[in-house]
Write a sequence for this structure.
């Protein structure tokens, strides 16, 4: 089945006759490596915007009511005299969450690394459909533009939280941001989903059909397994969000009542009858929870690859890792109700979701243990990518453990929607996935740009980020346990929470330092792109196929025939070999066993 | 002008940092820029890993030290509260142990096995026994937590109507709360937002012709008799809200078009809670902090000194003033409650 990739017509076409102009090479490129870079750059820009927003929110929480020149400068009429408006705080929360989850850690992460690595690691010339791939990127670009445009709408951008629960999101009179801002949010997300689906279908088809000779499913690097399963989860769950978005658009613009009923607002009764906001919650979280894994799995895949390579050891328990990816994928589609324990849903359903939710902790625990065992008796190369991967395992554990509390319906009653939740999901999905993305960038930068990044700047970047991430999100659990609700513009109307104010200031300090220090990364990234030291063919002495392809940008990835695969990707430090790595395209020696089967 | 200035300042800081990074970058000899870690790097980073482990532990200890008395894991004021608190504490102990051990192993291994030129790693790809062990341990621990959790949950959510709970409606609107009592007959009159008649001061849309509605009582401060089971019926007139009563370990969303419910029995009166040593200490501490920023608080028109009260907060984003949607809750003896209730107007008498 995998020989299909080796069609000669394709070969000739791409390598010899194809004249590239600037436009086809850099803009409307159909080459997966270029599309990966486009995703990465777009995602990075969105990331900078998202982080800036989070810094403004943190400043507002730490120093409410105090005029802040930065607010005045960046928010203009929404911060008269430098005092932030309550509406715009909610808008910041909303757009920050949306950008981070979807634009940075879904499109930016999957888009970059699935595109870059799937063809290169399975030994394919390109994605199954280069054209769809290009369309997918440009739809993503368009949705980013629309999302950014929504920031400049007269009545303000969407401000109903990234979960956009109706009726708040459905009724323009309920909130300034629910007018044009919300319309643009919905349109942007609809386009985003289309982009994501095109991308995912392409990834799935490519992994199934275009594996090179010898690349059986059990010889796939874990990166590919996670990208593949992530795409499957996306295809299953994103359409459900799309339906929620479309129905919400119907309610907003065409007077239907899917999510609305019996509403009296601003002195009048609205005509809506018979719908239910709880229905929206079900539809939203049917994507919303799997989305957590759409964000996280690729990061875990990258980590698996980086940890194995830099431990100079096989990843421990390859089959258990694949099994836990599959288990997580399956379970992730039946746990959404843990976001709705107190939504008014039947308490019995709550019990069921508690059960499935705590089940998902098991494969997650297996993964964490397997990473730790992979380090054991390794010969660890502690380069920046490796540090970020170890950091990921650390935050994944810290953040994941509190899931035991939130997934327990009885306990969720009291911590639901407090800062405890904010701390939990930032650690387990936000920071972890961000670390995965950084690890991927440091690790594959040589593959993407043919140059190396600066190691010491990478170290500096990691340590400051790691310290600030814990400094921000660890104490936040306690503030949440004190009962402080999230999405509060200021806490000063509750003297009850006055004893959290000092902690909030400390958290904000960490957030500011951590945010500003991302400049170190940005500098390293952009300057290394042009002035970095030239990379050698296989700088990490890695086994996977992408390091056998020439560094030079070649259409079709390998100038000659496609590499043939003889072994799994984790033959590191295998006894009987001189080198401590044996690339996948090295044939088995006489009498050598393929150990992991 | 100030806006312009501050943009300049921000830009200046960013550029300055950029330049510093650049100097740092250029000051390094080219060979150090390969991004491949050598033995020296591995050693330093290995030690930093151990330092980071210490940092994690220190953050944990500091958080418990400075913030450990914030959590709502003791002094609950409802009958089911201690059940939740126990479960919370057990879960936290489990988490604490697992966190301490796994973070230790992770960072210690990163330090212990830091790379050295010429050393070869152990080729160790699989071990079924080990994998079985660390699948089964979480299974057992989680099973215990799930079972405990589900019992607690069922206990809380299954409301025993035989106990003759007092029925109270919590009514949410942007951005305030109302409470409606069933009155003498303890039955709430029918209601729907379509029946709202502002001119007649029927603000909750209670059916004026429903006999059960006549003695209903609508108030803006929630009074509860201590020791009596309460059944809350939640309603919202506009968007989603959430009735969050942290001291009672109680929360339920208010959903337009639907009635949701939550029941609990308050066990400690407001007066008693104010005398609780932990609360006394908390209030003292808060008042010390408030004294320190006296001017600002008075400028904002708030009472300077804080006195403990139970609160109902809105905990579902509901618009501009979500951050200030609250209602005071007073738990009192049955006699005090009856006296207070006797002073309230019934629905029939409150109409214009
Ligand atoms: C630079 C570090 C970050 C800081 C300081 C930060 C800070 C914040 C703050 C203050 C909030 C508002 C909390 C609330 O009131 O509910 C928030 C919300 C949120 N953040 Fe972050 N954040 C950071 C990074 C991330 C990342 C990497 C993600 C990616 C998943 C993320 C996702 C979210 C989401 C989904 C929300 C919820 C938005 C909502 O409530 O609708 N954040 N963040
Ligand atoms: Cu979830
Ligand atoms: Cu509210």
């Amino acid at each position: 089945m995998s020989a299909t990739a080796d069609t000669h017509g394709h070969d000739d076409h791409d390598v010899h006759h194809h004249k590239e102009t600037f436009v086809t090479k850099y803009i409307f490129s159909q080459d997966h490596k270029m599309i990966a870079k486009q995703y990465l750059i777009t995602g990075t820009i969105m990331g900078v915007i998202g982080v800036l927003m989070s810094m403004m929110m943190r400043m507002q929480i730490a120093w409410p009511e105090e005029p802040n020149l930065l607010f005045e400068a960046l928010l203009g009429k929404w911060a008269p005299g430098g005092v932030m408006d309550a509406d715009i705080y909610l808008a910041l929360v909303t757009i920050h969450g949306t950008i981070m989850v979807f634009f940075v850690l879904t499109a930016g992460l999957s888009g970059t690394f699935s595109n870059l690595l799937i063809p290169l690691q399975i030994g394919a010339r390109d994605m199954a459909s280069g054209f769809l791939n290009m369309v997918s990127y440009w739809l993503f670009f368009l949705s980013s533009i629309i999302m950014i445009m929504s920031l400049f709408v007269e009545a303000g951008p969407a401000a109903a939280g990234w979960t956009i629960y109706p009726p708040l999101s459905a009724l323009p009179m309920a909130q300034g941001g629910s007018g044009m801002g919300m319309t643009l949010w919905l349109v942007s997300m609809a386009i985003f989903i289309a982009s994501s689906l095109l991308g995912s279908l392409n990834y799935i088809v490519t992994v199934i059909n275009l594996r090179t000779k010898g690349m059986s499913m059990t010889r796939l690097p874990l990166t590919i397994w996670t990208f593949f399963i992530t795409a499957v989860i996306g295809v299953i769950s994103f359409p459900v969000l799309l339906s929620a978005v479309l129905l919400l658009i119907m309610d907003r613009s065409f007077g239907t009542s899917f999510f609305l009923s019996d509403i009296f607002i601003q002195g009048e009764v609205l005509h809506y009858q018979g719908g239910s906001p709880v229905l929206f919650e079900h539809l939203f979280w049917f994507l919303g929870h799997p989305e957590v894994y759409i964000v996280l799995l690729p990061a875990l895949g990258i980590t698996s690859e980086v940890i194995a390579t830099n431990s100079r050891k096989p990843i421990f328990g390859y089959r258990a890792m694949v099994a836990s990816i599959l288990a997580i994928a399956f379970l992730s589609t039946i746990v959404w109700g843990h976001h709705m324990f107190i939504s008014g849903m039947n308490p019995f359903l709550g019990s069921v979701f508690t059960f499935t939710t705590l089940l998902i902790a098991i494969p997650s625990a297996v993964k964490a243990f397997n990473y730790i065992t992979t380090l054991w008796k390794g010969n660890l190369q502690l380069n920046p990518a490796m540090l970020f991967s170890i950091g990921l395992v650390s935050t994944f554990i810290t953040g994941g453990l509190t899931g035991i509390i939130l997934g327990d319906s009885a306990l969720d009653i009291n911590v639901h929607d407090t800062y405890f939740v904010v701390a939990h999901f930032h650690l387990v999905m936000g920071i972890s996935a961000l670390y995965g993305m950084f690890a991927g960038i440091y690790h594959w930068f040589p593959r993407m740009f043919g140059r190396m990044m600066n190691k010491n700047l990478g170290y500096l970047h990691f340590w400051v980020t790691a310290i600030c991430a814990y400094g921000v999100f660890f104490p936040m659990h306690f503030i949440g346990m004190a009962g402080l609700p999230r999405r509060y513009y200021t806490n000063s109307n509750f003297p009850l929470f006055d004893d959290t104010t000092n902690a909030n200031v400390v958290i904000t300090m960490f957030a500011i330092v951590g945010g500003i220090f991302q400049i170190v990364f940005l500098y390293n990234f952009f300057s290394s792109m042009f002035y970095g030291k030239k990379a050698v063919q296989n700088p990490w002495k890695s086994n996977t196929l992408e390091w056998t392809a020439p560094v030079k940008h070649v259409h079709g990835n390998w100038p000659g025939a496609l590499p043939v695969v003889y072994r799994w990707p984790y033959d590191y430090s295998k006894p009987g070999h001189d080198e401590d790595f044996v690339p996948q395209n090295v044939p088995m020696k006489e009498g050598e066993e393929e150990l992991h089967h | 002008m100030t806006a312009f200035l501050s943009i300049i300042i921000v830009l200046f800081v960013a550029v300055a940092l950029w330049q510093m990074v650049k100097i740092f970058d250029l000051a390094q000899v080219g060979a150090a820029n390969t991004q491949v870690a050598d033995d020296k790097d591995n050693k330093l980073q290995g030690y930093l890993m151990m330092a980071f482990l210490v940092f994690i532990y220190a953050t944990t200890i500091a958080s418990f030290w400075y913030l450990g008395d914030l959590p709502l894991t003791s002094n609950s004021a409802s009958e089911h509260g201690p059940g939740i608190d126990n479960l919370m504490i057990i879960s936290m102990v489990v988490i604490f142990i697992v966190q301490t051990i796994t973070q230790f192993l992770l960072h210690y291994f990163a330090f212990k096995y830091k790379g050295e030129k010429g050393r070869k790693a152990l080729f160790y790809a699989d071990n079924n026994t080990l994998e079985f062990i660390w699948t089964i341990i979480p299974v057992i621990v989680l099973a215990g937590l799930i079972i405990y959790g589900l019992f607690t949950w069922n206990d809380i959510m299954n409301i025993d109507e035989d106990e003759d709970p007092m029925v109270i409606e919590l009514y949410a609107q942007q951005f305030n709360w109302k409470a409606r009592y069933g009155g003498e007959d303890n039955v709430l009159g029918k209601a729907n937002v379509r029946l709202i008649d502002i001119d007649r001061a029927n603000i909750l849309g209670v059916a004026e012709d429903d006999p059960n509605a006549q003695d209903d009582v609508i108030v803006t401060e929630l009074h509860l008799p201590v020791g009596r089971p309460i059944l809350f019926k939640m309603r919202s007139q506009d968007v989603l809200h959430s009735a969050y009563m942290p001291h009672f370990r109680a929360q339920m969303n208010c959903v337009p078009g639907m009635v949701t419910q939550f029941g609990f029995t308050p066990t400690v009166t407001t007066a008693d809670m104010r005398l609780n040593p932990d609360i006394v200490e908390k209030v003292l501490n808060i008042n010390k902090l408030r004294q320190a920023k006296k001017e600002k608080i008075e400028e904002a028109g708030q009472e300077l000194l804080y006195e403990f009260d139970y609160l109902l907060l809105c905990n579902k984003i509901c618009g501009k003033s979500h951050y200030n949607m609250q209602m005071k809750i007073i738990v009192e003896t049955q006699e005090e409650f009856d006296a207070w209730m006797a002073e309230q107007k019934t629905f029939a008498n409150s109409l214009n």
Summary: The longest helix of chain A spans residues 86-122. Confidence is low (pLDDT under 50) at residues 1-17 of chain A. Strands of chain A lie at 264-265, 268-269. Residues B 172, 175, 241, 314, 318, 322, 325 surround copper (II) ion (ligand 3) (CB under 6 Å).
